[in-house]
Amino acid sequence: MSREPAENLKSSSYSIHAGSGSAIEGLDKPGSVVVRLCLPLLNEGRLIIADNYYTGIALARYLKDRHTDLCGTLRKNKVNLPKDIIQKKLKRGDVVAKQMDSFVTVLKWHDKRDVLMISTCHGKEMTDVTSWRGQSKKPNMVMDYNDAKKGIDVADQLSCYHSPLRKSMTWYKKVAYDLIFQTAIVNTKVIFEEATGSSISVLDVQEAMIRHWLGDVVMKKQPARISTLPSTSSERHALTQIPRRDGKLVRRRCVICYANKKAEGNPLLAKQVNTECLKCKKTFCLKCFNEAH
């Protein structure tokens, strides 16, 4: 593994794991990834939150020298960790911590299981919290980590909805799809909701962006699902989603599919859809709608 001097660092906002690459002097590869991604943010007194794959004593020391703090979960097989903390047996609610180099704190707390943490800006202070189990104490280090990490978890959850990724795709196509149809979509949703104060689904954002890229031709053929349609759209035949009932999708049988299946003696096999014609107020699947209009 080659080593790269710190003065030759180049920042990156997106990193693709290729199985090889250089590491920064004094750091392993995961720690080097953190530094490269956060290079423009160093020397500003910021706090970096990372999970147990990236954290370590060496990374904490490096960032502290760059006036940046680190907080995150920690793997017990990382090098230079205090063995008395790693091997300590704890009961639920117990906590033990040790400070290294006067600024790196390694903490172990037992909740449902052992939680190992590292931080350069926390001690072993605890805060009273209330949960379904009642009153308990939780380390401030854990609370700050959870508060920062939950944004990433929510973004990952939102990006997996209606994902266009498929196992058969080439890897570089997956990268492009992730940026355009997942990361950008979630960012657009967040910005829209903060700017307007109204809620919008991930699917609505995807459809609005695709329709914008494809232009007016698609807009004339089929209106968007977003509720901000012009009032004149109800005066022409157009396929739209049936209004939800108590927040749940409403599904009905396509009228043409039902008639065809009824003639065959199997009306219950008719396709159920959640779309209807704005003008006819009848339920259609896409195929039958195009044939009827």
Automatic annotation (TrEMBL):
Residues 27-187 form the PiggyBac transposable element-derived protein domain. InterPro entries: PGBD (IPR029526). Pfam families: DDE_Tnp_1_7. This is PiggyBac transposable element-derived protein domain-containing protein. It comes from Euphydryas editha.
